[in-house]
Design brief:
Helix 2 (40-51) runs antiparallel to helix 3. This protein is of the alpha+beta class. Strands 1, 30, 31, 32 and 33 form a 5-stranded antiparallel beta sheet that branches. The longest helix has 24 residues, at 59-82. It has helices spanning 12-17, 40-51, 59-82, 100-109, 119-135, 277-285, 462-468; strands at 138-140, 149-154, 159-164, 169-173, 179-181, 205-206, 212-216, 223-227, 232-237, 246-251, 256-261, 265-270, 292-294, 298-301, 314-320, 325-330, 334-340, 344-351, 360-364, 369-373, 377-381, 393-394, 402-408, 411-416, 420-425, 430-431, 433-436, 445-450, 452-454, 459-460, 478-486, 491-498, 505-511. Residues 132-512 form the DDB1- and CUL4-associated factor 12 beta-propeller domain. Keywords: Repeat, WD repeat. This is DDB1- and CUL4-associated factor 12-like protein 1 isoform X2. Residues 1-60 are annotated as: Disordered.
């Protein structure tokens, strides 16, 4: 885990002991008008306060002090010439803060005193987000015979955890391609009548502090929680939970998660560290993989639609931390909004404008809107307006569908079923374009062509290809089921595999 370097602010004592340069404030004040108030010493002190905590006045501070003294001397002479007069005070303008101390302090705290980037550096980071996609270059990763990467998350600067259709949970080192498999948790009472899982692991999510990871168990109906960074098993939600595969997971806080299932239900889980720490520590010394078995705090069913009541499978979840609300998409073509507290309370349900294959969902905190991916469109929902007030975007990728979505600031990344990545600027309401230079002495300018990154061929099982498809057909692009950014390192991990269900294969790539 990377830790942020923080510097302690200088102590007041150190500031008081810093020698001061002799300035105009050390001179004796000139003769002043009888009714005029104020002094150069006081104004010099106010100018130094406006400049900040720096002990040495910078160029802007010295100029402001000199201007203040000249104005005061001029008004004093006018007072002596014209006699007593009451001068109206001009509104004081805020002093410009251009010292190095204020720049560093603003970079650490942000413009409003909160952690973040402000001013020029924030603009620079936004510009980098716009320009990063056109600079990315692919390096394919070898995953062996694994089948279809469905979910992924960065664990640190070089490791990504992934879940596959063949029910494998593993960590891949993006520098060495080394793969480490993670043992799956088993139900307390295994269902012997159930055959090998054909669903796989569709969701991998980290809690906000990146101390816990939620995913599926050996039984894809169960919720498994692992501890980070050790990946030790913590608990398994296999009691009175879902009756079908888990498709989506979202964390509400560091200890509360919600899972969405193919059975049309949402389950709210609470992880209590005190109930398993002692047991895990004792059995860990003995070398035994022991974990707790938990049940959900609340289970709520998605309302049945009148148009397609039998297809209310929960396919994707996205949480709004600002509003403490959870968005859910079901395959019957509806978006549902829930209030997440100690239980789940449904707020509303909306019919989506494009209701075929709604399989992915994300939330944009900066613009406070949800984005839903369907067979050929991405729809935007601004619930503050109560309607869809941003035109949807069309992927136009041969009807293969939008398979993965992510958003950073106002740029949304779209992974398609045709092996390509697209980038859409929500504010400008247009796709990012390729840039090209008209000559060696000109800067690259937008060319009018949509920026599209096409992923490599990956690996495909040739036996499946010959058995199920016509010989000579070689164009089987990979569906990009998952992608995730490592923004501090400016890297993008992309995973997927053949779109056809009858083909066995995988794709993994590092774009940097």
């Amino acid at each position: 885990m990377q830790q942020a370097n923080t510097e302690a602010p200088p102590s007041p004592t150190a500031q008081e002991e810093t020698p001061q340069l002799a300035g105009p404030s050390d001179r004796s004040p000139p003769t002043m008008a009888p009714l005029q108030t104020g002094s150069r010493k006081r104004k010099a002190a106010e100018a130094e306060e406006g400049a900040g905590s720096s002990s040495l006045p910078g160029p802007s501070t010295a100029v402001a002090m000199a201007m203040a003294m000249e104005m005061e001397m001029a008004t004093a002479e006018a007072g002596q010439a014209e006699g007593p007069m009451l001068l109206a005070k001009r509104p004081r303008r805020p002093m410009a803060r251009s010292s190095l101390v204020h720049y560093l302090k603003g970079r650490a705290l942000g413009a409003d005193g909160h952690p973040g980037l402000g001013g020029f550096e924030g603009d620079l980071r936004s510009y980098g987000v716009l320009r990063l996609p056109e600079l990315l270059r692919e390096r394919q990763l070898s995953l062996g015979p694994l089948n279809k990467v469905f979910a992924s998350q960065w664990l640190n600067a070089r490791q990504v955890v992934c879940g596959t259709k063949c029910n494998t949970l593993f960590v891949v080192d993006v520098k060495t391609d080394h793969i480490m498999r993670i043992p799956l948790m088993r139900d307390r009472v295994p269902d012997l009548s159930r055959g090998p899982p054909s669903c796989g692991i569709h969701a991998v999510e980290l809690n906000p502090s990146k101390t816990l990871m939620a995913t599926g168990g050996e039984n894809p109906n169960s919720l498994a929680i692992y501890q980070l960074p050790t990946l030790d098993p913590v608990c398994l939600g296999d009691c009175q939970g879902h009756r079908d595969w888990i498709f989506a997971i979202a964390w509400m806080s560091d200890t509360v998660a919600v899972s969405g299932s193919r059975d049309g239900t949402l389950a709210l889980w609470r992880v209590d560290p005190d109930m398993f720490n002692g047991s895990i520590a004792w059995h860990k010394d003995a070398g035994l993989p022991v974990y707790a078995h938990i049940r959900p705090r609340d289970v709520e069913a998605i309302p049945k639609a009148t148009t397609n009541p039998g297809n209310r499978k929960v396919r994707a979840l996205a949480f709004s931390n600002r509003n403490q609300e959870l968005g859910a998409v079901s395959l019957d073509g509806y978006f549902h909004l829930w209030k997440a507290r100690s239980n789940l309370s449904r707020l509303l349900s909306l019919r989506l404008p494009y209701c075929r294959e709604n399989v992915c969902l994300t939330y944009c905190e900066d613009l406070a809107l949800y984005a839903v991916g369907s067979q050929s469109h991405v729809s935007f929902l601004d619930l503050r307006q109560g309607q869809q007030n941003i035109p949807p975007l069309c992927s136009r990728e041969g009807g293969t569908g939008v398979r993965s979505l992510s958003v950073h600031q106002h740029i949304i990344t779209v992974g398609t079923g045709h092996g390509s990545l697209l980038f859409y600027d929500i504010r400008a309401q247009k796709f990012l374009e390729e840039r090209s230079a008209t000559g060696p002495d000109f800067f690259p300018a937008p060319s009018g062509r949509k920026l599209k990154l096409t992923c490599g061929s990956g690996w495909i099982n040739q036996d499946d290809l010959l058995e199920n498809y016509v010989a000579g057909v070689e164009d089987f692009p990979n569906a990009l089921y998952t992608h995730c950014y490592n923004w501090p390192e400016m890297k993008l991990f992309v995973g997927g595999g053949p779109l056809a269900s009858g083909l066995h294969g995988n794709y993994a790539g590092l774009w940097s």
